[in-house]
Amino acid sequence: MTARAADRARYDRATAHLDAPVAIVDLDAFDANADDLVRRAGGKPIRVASKSVRCRALLERVLARDGFRGIMSFTLAESLWLARSGFDDVLLAYPSADRAGYAELAADPKLAAAVTVMVDDVAQLDLIDAARGDGREVVRVCLELDTSLRLLGGRVRVGARRSPLHSPAEVAELARAVARRPGFRVVGIMAYEGHIAGVGDAIAGRPLRSRAVRLMQAAARRELAERRAAVVRAVRAVVPELEFVNGGGTGSVQHTAAEDAVTEIAAGSGLYVPRLFDNYTSFSGRPAALFAQPVVRRPGVGVVTVLGGGYPASGAAGRDRLPVPYLPEGLRYDPQEGPGEVQTPLLGSAADDLLIGDKVWFRHAKAGELCERFDVLHLVAGDAVTDTVPTYRGEGRTFL
Fold first, then answer.
1. What is the Cβ-side half-sphere exposure of residue 200, based on CA atoms within 13 angstroms?
2. Residues 332, 336, 341, 344: what is their CA dihedral angle, to the nearest 10 degrees?
3. Are strands 68-73 and 46-49 parallel, antiparallel or unpaired?
4. Which of 259, 272, 254 is nearest to 369 (CA)?
5. Residue 228 and residue 27: Cα distance in Å, rounded?
6. How does the average pLDDT of the chain come out, rounded?
């Protein structure tokens, strides 16, 4: 029996009492992935990206482990909810236009002490000030650096379009603007190198593209390490009491942690290890989050149909954004239909061994987005469900 076949047997036994659709997290794999992230971080604390987890119970579980500290959130409403729930170090990773949220933040000493907001433009400070109302708490601010690699005099750009602040001088100037402004305090710098941390460099069947990605990433790491260090020096000249410099992501943990200028690493997807993280040479994780759909039809030889399953992930539309049938091994989509809203045909010899009511296990393309489809996660240890915990959706929280 292969390791994957053994996992399927465990998951089927653990969830035999549960009807599909059902979502699980394998705690043995989850904890092993957490240990691997800590090892790769080399002693620097890991801030957990909540968008990749979207379950308070699992955020609490990982933050109770050595090597993890703080949360990186994705909306202001989520940040305030987490702070009210007892999480005392929440960094909002994206600028917000949530005026009601800013009014709440500026009026509550506990929230203002726990939440740090992201800024890359003076106009965002104007919005916060306009939203304050009577709130006079000091708002903690993190400045975001654009990490993109610019080539040929800026005519070629590699990396996500995030912050407009690219040079040390630009970041330092915004730091001075915040320092001059009552009611704000710069406490950190963030620089997320998505073109390194979020792009696989070992693409199956595409050796030339994989080599090109590795060459690009090596050049990007060298350029960013030098520029990030210069940015930190420039900002510390304005804000000597800077508390943290955040960088990285699951795919670049060990590389980012090696930079002296970086004080903490961000990671989250590496806990669940969705399918987009199969294509990396720098690490290998264990799939921990899966969902199962029930077989409801057997249309013919070599084909079964499961209920639902059309759960595409965000990003540029493509096959890599689709979930993949994972267990039993050997199933594939019908190219004429793909994963559907209410039914999904699956082809392959493994289909002939499946009966009506059997479970087919899938892996989602991205990590936390799976939780937007399910109210609860069943936590599996060995071959038993040891707990059932709500996702954000299960707690009535749909932040985006």
1. 20
2. -40
3. parallel
4. 272
5. 36
6. 94
- What's the CA gap between 219 and 159, in Å, rounded? 13
Lowest-pLDDT range, 139-148, 176-185, 213-222?
Answer: 213-222
* Residue 196 near residue 252 (C-beta atoms within 8 A): yes
Q: CB 13: neighbour CB atoms within 10 A?
A: 14
CA 91, distance to chain mean position in Å, is 14
pLDDT in the model for residue 51: 97
pTM score: 0.93
Tell me the residue type at 78. Answer: E
**Is it the case that residue 374 has pLDDT exceeding 80?**
yes
Q: Which residues of 199-217 are buried (b: 16+ CB within 10 A; e: fewer)?
A: bbbebeeeeeebeebeebb
Structure tokens at 133: 């109302």
Distance CA 76, CA 99 (A): 10
pLDDT of residue 313: 95
Q: Give the residue among 20, 24, 21 at the shortest CA–CA distance from 7.
A: 24
Compute the distance between CA of residue 119 and CA of residue 351 in angstroms, rounded to an integer. 51
Residues 6+ away with beta carbon under 8 Å from 398: 372, 392
**Gap between the Cα atoms of 5 and 310, Å rounded:** 24
Positive or negative: CA dihedral 250, 255, 257, 259: negative
| Whether 43 contacts 314, CB under 8 Å | no
Q: How many residues does the chain have?
A: 400
Residues 6+ apart with CB under 8 A from 278: 200
How many angstroms separate the CA atoms of 201 and 307, rounded?
A: 34
**Residue 310 has what pLDDT?**
95
Instruction: Name the token pair of 244.
Output: 């943290």
Diameter of the chain by CA atoms? 72
CB count in 10 Å sphere of residue 146: 21
